[in-house]
Amino acid sequence: MSLSKFCLLASASLVSLTTGLSTPHANIKRQVSQLRESYDFVIVGGGTSGLTVADRLSEAFPQKTVLVVEYGDVEYAPSSFDPPVDWYGPNSFQSASLWVFFSQPNPEYNNLTALSFAGQVVGGSSAINGQFFDRPSRHDLDSWTQLGVSSDWNWRGMFPYFKKSIKFTAPSAQVAQQYNYTWDLSSYGGTTPIHSSFPPFQWADNSVVLNGWRELGVHTRQDCAGGDKEGLCAVPTSQHPITARRSHAGLGHYADVVGTRSNYDLLVKHQAVRVIYPNGVNSGPPLLDVRSLTTNARFNITANAEVVLSAGAYHTPTVLLRSGIGAANILAASGITQVLELPGVGANLQDHPGSTGVAWNYTKPGNWTPMPEEMADPTFKADATAAFDEVPARGPYTMALGNRAIYISLPNTTPNYLSIIRKILRQTVDGSAASFLPADYRDNAALARGYRDQLAVLAKLLLNPKAPNLETPWSTGYSAPAILLHPLSRGTVRLNPADHLAQPVVDSRHGSNPVDFDMQLANVKWSRRLLDTPTMKRYGAVETAPGEAVQSDAELLAFIKSAATLSYQHPCCTAALGPKNKGGVVDNKLRVHGAKGLRVVDISVLPLVISAHTSSTAYALGEKAADVIIKEWR
Fold first, then answer.
1. DSSP 3-state assignment of 25?
2. Which key words are in the record (predicted)?
3. Is the pTM of this model over 0.85?
C-alpha cells in the first residue's frame, strides 16, 4: 500500500501531517469578527498543556464554549530528522515555526548565553522538540510535598495522568530484540491519540556505548516510565507507530477531535497581551486583551467561567506582568501599575545545563554499518527516503534524537557526595542562600524563604541513591554529554522595559550558585570512566575532550565552563505551584493566588525542574488540570 493510499484511510490529522497541509476547519478563527460574543473557557496558548485542557473541557462540556488563543498558526510539524535532511550534516535539522531565546550572558560561564527554543505553532513545543519522551523520577514529584504542595501532585497523584496522556505502541518482537528495547505495559494504557513508540532503526554504533555503560556497572532497567529510572533506560519517541511522523498536541488534541466539537474554537495569529480586572481581582474571571498580528488591532475577549494561561515558562509570566500581577519593584521598573502582589511571577527560572562529559575517537573502529555519515552517499540517502515513505515506515529517518539514556544519582556519581550535600545545607543555615539569588528579588522575604526551603529539599533529594542527577542520552557518535538534572541556580524572566510586547528578557544565571559546579565536576569525572571499559578499549577509544592533559579540578572546571550547553530546552518553574508566602504563584488547583477566574496550566507551574525532558510532564499536567477544572464546574 502506498503512503498516499494509507493516509486516505487514516484520520484527518494524518492527512495534514503527511501532506504538510492544514485541514480547513470552521473552528479556526483569524479575526475578531469571527469570534462568538463570549466564551466559557478562554485558554491562552495552543501548546502541549493548553490544547490538552481545551480538548478535555470541550469534550466534557458540550454546551460550554472553549476558545484557544495562539500566537502561531496551523503548520506541518516535521520530525527532527524527516527527509530530506542529512542527519549529521549542514542541513541536519528542520522544524515548524519557533521562538528563539537568548539569555543574558552568564558571568560564571565565561559570559556564555543560554540558547533555547519554544514552539510558535499550534502544538507548541511538542511540535518542535527532540521527541525524547521520558518521564521524571517518582522522587522528584514526591519531594514537592515538602515545599507545601498538596500530595495530589506527588507521583501517586500524577502517575494515572502520565498513563492517560499517551497511547504507547510496542514494537515487534524482532525490532525489540534487535535494538534491545524493553518496556513495561503497566506503565502505559492511555487511548489518547498522542503516540509513543520505538523506531524500527538504530545506528550501528549505538550498542557500543550501551555495552560500555553496562560494563561500568550501570543497572539496566526494563522500564523507566513507571517512576523508577536510576540506571540505563530505553526511551520511546513521540511519533506515530506506523508513519514514524511526529505526534504532537496540534494533532492529538486539536486536529483529531475538532471536527466533532462545534464548541471548540481556535484563534490563530493573535497575541494575548494581558488579563484585565475592571472591578478588581476578586471580581473575575478577567477579560483577555488580545492583539491581532495581522492588523495590530486590540480587543477584549470575555470569559464567562475562567481564563487559563498556558503560554509556557517564558510567556506565561510575561502575560501576568503586563497585567500588573507580580512584584512591585519589577512592575515599577517597567512602568506598570500593580494590580496584585505576587513576587514569584517570573522568578525561579530553572533549566538543565550541561557540558561534554567525555568525547573520543576510535583508533580501531569496528566495521559498523549503517552510520550517519553514510547519508552523504546519494544512493544510501535515496534508499533511506524511500524506506521512510513505506507503510510502515522504516530506516534512518524514523529516528528522532535518540532512544537511550543513563540516569545516575549523585551518590552513585561521586564518593564525595556528602561534602556536596553539606555545602547545600550550610547555605540554608548560615543565611548565604539568598546571596545567590538575582539582585532584583534577593531581599524579598517570600522568595528568599522559598529558595532556602528548595535547597533543603534538594539536599535530601540528592542524597537519595535512587534519584537521578546526571543524564546522558545518546544515539550515535563520539561523545557523552553530562546534563545536570537538579541545578541550584535560579534565573528570571522579565518584561523588556522598552517594549512590553516584545520578547521577554531572560536571565538564566547558570552557575550563580557555586555548588552547581561541584556537581558538574562530579558528573564529568564519572563520565570519563566510560573510556576505561573493555568495550571502549577494544575499539581503541582515545579521549579528545576534556583531553588527557586536563586532570586537575581547576582544569576540568575551565573545560566545563568553556564547553557548556546552558539550556537543554527545558525552561520551567516561573509561575510556580506553592504557598504564596514562599514565592508560589498558583495554589494546589493551579489558580493564581488572589486572582479570581485565572489559572495557569503549563510547565511554568513546576516548583522544581524535573529529572526528565518536559513534554510528557506537560501532557500529564494538562490532563490533571482538566480533571480539576471539570470537577469544579460540574
1. coil
2. Signal
3. yes
